[in-house]
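FIELD: query
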Amino acid sequence: MKEGIHPNYREVVFQDLGNGFKFVTRSCVQTKEMIKLEDGRELPLVKLETTSETHPFYTGTQKSIDNLGGRVEKFRNKFARVGLKKSSTPAPETQA
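FIELD: result
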């Protein structure tokens, strides 16, 4: 590989700010913060708002559109009636 053209690919700690969950993976992300792990290693730290540990989709707490208390059905009924308001008489035929 050519020297000086590749990003610094190294181990990085990602930390979930919601519950403190941490995991180590390799990344090129640039950080200013460092964290010391239990095993004595000092690695760059990236703080995240959401990870798979706190995201509603992965934790099973995400609401489905079926659980919206009838709002979807109310919307469908409202706009089904709007579609029926069109003129029911056929347009007059033009003779040439």
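FIELD: remark
The mean pLDDT is 81.
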